[in-house]
């Protein structure tokens, strides 16, 4: 038997922990944490280790599948529909000809693509997708970002002029870390690539510092550090109060602020009405606590406020994220060691590249509007909350053919029922995945994707998000399972077929032909290699000793640390506005603040629903791994003891949770570790992928996003964020 132990890294979530893959005769048989990884140093979580069960899952799709329809009708959607294997060539030929027909009859606006979360951990898919948007300029692009992080991009665009200027908390050196709406002990960090984040937070306390968690639930993170409970979606009020105190008590260093930012007076005016007393009813936080926190943030030399999903998916996530950065700036904690810092690639001319890129993306944001709702395009994408309506609303730009690659929007976006009905009305639907998930059950074709260990990788989008700048790349550790193919190869194949009928793709093919005359093969790997070689530590194509893609995988298989820490004082390089000055004044932000006073709650829904990530889940897609499901795991709703008593619900009883948009039933777990009046429900459950994951299907549970609204008016206006937290609900005993 041929056995090898290959260093690589996990790409389920953002720390990208180092892994050793045990390969026996070409089969991935085990994964264990890599103790030689310079940062994750022998840590990996249960999900990472259990991933061999996903790679070898008997329910995995390993050949292209075609939907068989019992009655032959497109709109059957009958539960007796199934799938049969077809050859790649047959599948791709039919898909290409049907896409070409949609394009001919409806233009490129007749085509849509949903790019799910694992796609962001897959450089070659991300890069290849650009050829689709080039060939189909009006193609609707949706991503998981409108349920996650697009507000972060828009806040950065407003403040720094570039959506890609993303601050990260310097957890390695801070003495006061304020975590708002994030649960890093469970999530392992987000928009922050910091392996062993839990240990790093304990280090803060060990060196005499503090970690304060502001969250409606006493989460796994809050339980290990300090907890400050907050009313869901009260964060904008709290942050405005922190600013109000910093200005009114003259805590802010105005001379320093004037050097770095424009619009400071405007911000001061904006915050003025929001004294801690005025916001207490919205946050549930005592004014003395707010004042003390404002003072601590300014007076602690190294302090940072960090916010993630909980501060992104409320009514005004862009405003909240803008305010988090404003608090960091005003407190003197932006772009300084131990504060909120910016990573850079270190490419020659990066400043100009960022400037040009920032201007381009700002242009797309302001010019391109979604057909439904008129939402701006964030990194070229539209809000997934309105995807169903983009499919069902007649007119030019109505989606007729949809691709879903690495996503499960039926469970992850608001109102999955509406989306399921819409999917059945498409002329063509194609999925690229490891499983026939709840969304892909509606496809005409399901194409088998390689898992992360069956492809090479370089985690491009995470490079600037690391408090310890590191480069790591990997080759595939095993060959594709069955007939699986990497997304970029599938897209390449499709683009090639479409070049015979579609001018944009013909042009792309022409460019490739010319390049090949010079011996260059345009591929995602070539681009990733160029980034590695041009950026910090790279070999600059032979001009100096340094890294390339293959040098990284051959000579530094455990990763190469570039620097111990991030460098401060880089604002002038990352901010693309004139003079490198942060821009605080924006009418759109003013308008969002105005809206705060007009918030309305529907009658009869006195409680607030929040989400809850679980250590052994990853959104909707790890519920088929027996190791992660052992012990009869099931989905529960967390209800405060007082609310449970008032409603007559005991621990373990079924509770009915209703919003104006739908209702679900789940067993309740009664607790005191949550703010009274708040219910927490994990998302990604309620499996029923008919031809798909059997373990997941048998796990029960409900799709919490049936309670969420997909109405245009309920989608956040600046970044198209779905509203998934702070949702008004009521609870009652089931039956
Ligand atoms: N184990 C596990 N890890 C994961 C994932 C997973 O599903 N499971 N998913 C991955 C993904 S896709 C992402 S994006 C990251 C997310 O990473 P995080 O953002 O760190 O994780 P969440 O659990 O979503 O944390 C959001 C927190 O916000 C709180 N919250 C809800 N509403 C509010 C509010 O209005 N105000 C405040 N202040 N807090 C609020 C919730 O109680 C929750 O604790 O995690 C990644 N890692
Ligand atoms: N109520 C509520 N809803 C939420 C959230 C919340 O906190 N609360 N969180 C939101 C967030 S942060 C996110 S990121 C979204 C996630 O939303 P989605 O990305 O739509 O859904 P996932 O459940 O992550 O599904 C990922 C799919 O990708 C497949 N997959 C895994 N690896 C690969 C691969 O290498 N290639 C391909 N082609 N497929 C692969 C998996 O099998 C799975 O079917 O959910 C959002 N929805
Ligand atoms: S923390 Fe995330 S990256 Fe690390 S092993 Fe677990 S799933 Fe993989
Ligand atoms: Mo996410």
What's the topology here?
Blueprint: E1 3-9, E2 18-24, E3 27-33, H1 46-55, E4 65-68, E5 82-85, H2 88-106, E6 111-115, H3 123-135, E7 140-143, H4 150-160, E8 167-169, E9 176-180, H5 184-187, H6 197-206, E10 210-214, H7 220-224, E11 226-228, H8 235-248, H9 254-260, E12 261-262, H10 264-271, H11 276-283, H12 287-299, E13 303-307, H13 317-330, E14 340-342, H14 350-367, H15 387-392, E15 401-405, H16 409-412, H17 416-423, E16 428-433, E17 445-448, E18 470-471, H18 487-498, H19 503-517, H20 524-534, H21 549-555, E19 560-561, H22 571-574, E20 582-583, H23 587-596, E21 607-610, H24 626-629, E22 637-640, H25 641-647, E23 654-659, E24 662-671, E25 678-680, H26 694-697, E26 727-733
Parallel strand pairs: 6-7, 6-15, 9-10, 9-13, 10-11, 12-20, 15-16, 16-17, 21-25, 22-24
Antiparallel strand pairs: 1-2, 2-3, 4-5, 4-17, 8-14, 18-19, 21-26, 22-25, 23-24, 23-26
This protein binds ligand MGD (2 copies), iron/sulfur cluster and molybdenum atom.
Molybdenum atom binds at residues 117, 144, 148.
């Amino acid at each position: 038997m041929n056995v090898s132990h290959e260093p690589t890294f996990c790409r389920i979530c953002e720390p990208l922990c180092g892994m050793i893959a045990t390969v026996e005769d070409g089969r991935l048989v085990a994964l264990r944490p890599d103790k030689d990884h310079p940062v994750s140093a022998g840590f990996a979580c249960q999900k990472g280790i259990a991933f061999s069960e996903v790679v070898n899952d008997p329910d995995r799709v390993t050949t292209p599948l075609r939907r068989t329809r019992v009655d032959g009708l497109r709109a059957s959607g009958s539960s007796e529909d199934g799938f049969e294997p077809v050859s790649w060539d047959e599948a791709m030929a039919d898909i290409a000809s049907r896409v070409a027909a949609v394009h001919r009859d409806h233009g490129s606006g007749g085509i849509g693509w949903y790019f799910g979360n694992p796609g962001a951990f897959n450089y070659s898919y991300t890069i290849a997708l650009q050829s689709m948007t080039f060939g189909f300029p009006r193609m609707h692009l949706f991503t998981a970002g409108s349920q996650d992080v697009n507000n972060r991009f828009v806040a950065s665009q407003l403040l720094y002029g570039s959506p890609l200027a993303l601050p990260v908390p310097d957890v390695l050196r801070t003495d006061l870390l304020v975590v708002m709406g994030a649960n890093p002990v469970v999530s392992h960090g987000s928009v922050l690539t910091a392996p062993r984040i839990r240990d790093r937070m304990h280090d803060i306390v060990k060196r005499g510092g503090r970690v304060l968690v502001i969250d409606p639930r006493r989460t796994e993170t809050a339980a290990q550090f300090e907890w400050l409970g907050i009313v869901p979606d009260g964060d904008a009020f709290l942050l405005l109060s922190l600013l109000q105190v910093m200005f009114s008590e003259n805590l802010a260093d105005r001379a320093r602020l004037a050097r770095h930012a424009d619009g400071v007076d405007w911000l001061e005016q904006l915050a003025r009405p929001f004294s801690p007393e005025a916001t207490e009813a919205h946050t549930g936080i005592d004014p003395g606590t707010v004042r003390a926190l404002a003072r601590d943030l300014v007076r602690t030399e190294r302090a940072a406020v960090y916010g993630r999903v909980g501060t992104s998916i409320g009514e005004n996530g862009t405003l909240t994220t803008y305010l988090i950065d404003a608090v960091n700036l005003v407190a003197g904690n932006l772009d300084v060691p131990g504060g909120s810092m910016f990573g850079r690639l270190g490419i020659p001319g990066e400043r100009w590249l960022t400037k040009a890129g920032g201007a381009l993306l700002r242009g797309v944001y302001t010019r391109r509007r979604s057909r439904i709702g008129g939402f701006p395009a964030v990194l070229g994408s539209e809000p997934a909350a309105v995807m169903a309506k983009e499919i069902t609303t007649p007119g030019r730009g109505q989606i007729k053919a949809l691709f879903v690659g690495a996503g499960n929007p039926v469970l992850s976006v608001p109102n999955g029922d509406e989306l399921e009905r819409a999917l059945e009305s498409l002329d063509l639907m194609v999925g690229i995945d490891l499983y026939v998930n709840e969304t892909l059950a509606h496809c005409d074709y399901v194409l088998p994707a390689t898992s992360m260990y069956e492809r090479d990788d370089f985690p491009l989008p995470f490079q600037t998000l690391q408090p310890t700048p590191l480069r790591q790349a990997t080759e595939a550790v095993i060959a594709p399972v069955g007939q699986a193919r990497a997304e970029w190869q599938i897209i390449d194949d499709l683009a090639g077929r479409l070049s015979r009928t579609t001018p944009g793709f013909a042009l792309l093919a022409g460019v490739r032909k010319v390049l090949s005359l010079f011996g260059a093969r345009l591929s995602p790997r070539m681009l990733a290699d160029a980034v590695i070689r041009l950026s910090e530590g790279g070999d600059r194509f032979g001009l100096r000793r340094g890294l390339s893609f293959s040098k990284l995988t051959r000579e530094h298989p455990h990763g190469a640390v570039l620097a111990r820490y991030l460098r401060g004082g880089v604002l002038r390089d990352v901010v693309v506005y004139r003079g490198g000055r942060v821009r605080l004044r924006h009418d759109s932000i003013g308008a969002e603040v105005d809206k705060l006073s007009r918030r309305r709650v529907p009658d009869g829904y006195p409680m607030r629903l929040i989400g809850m990530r679980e250590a052994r889940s990853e959104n909707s897609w790890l519920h088929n791994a027996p190791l992660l499901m052992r012990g009869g795991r099931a989905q529960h709703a967390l209800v405060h003891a007082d609310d449970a008593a008032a409603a007559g619900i005991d621990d373990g009883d079924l509770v009915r949770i209703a919003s104006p948009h739908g209702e679900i039933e789940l067993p309740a777990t009664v607790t005191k570790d949550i703010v009274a009046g708040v219910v927490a429900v994990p998302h990604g459950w309620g499996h029923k992928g008919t031809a798909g994951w059997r373990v997941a299907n048998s796990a029960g549970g409900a799709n919490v996003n049936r309670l969420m609204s997909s109405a245009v008016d309920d989608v956040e206006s600046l970044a198209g964020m779905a509203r998934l937290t702070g949702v008004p609900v009521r609870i009652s005993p089931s039956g």
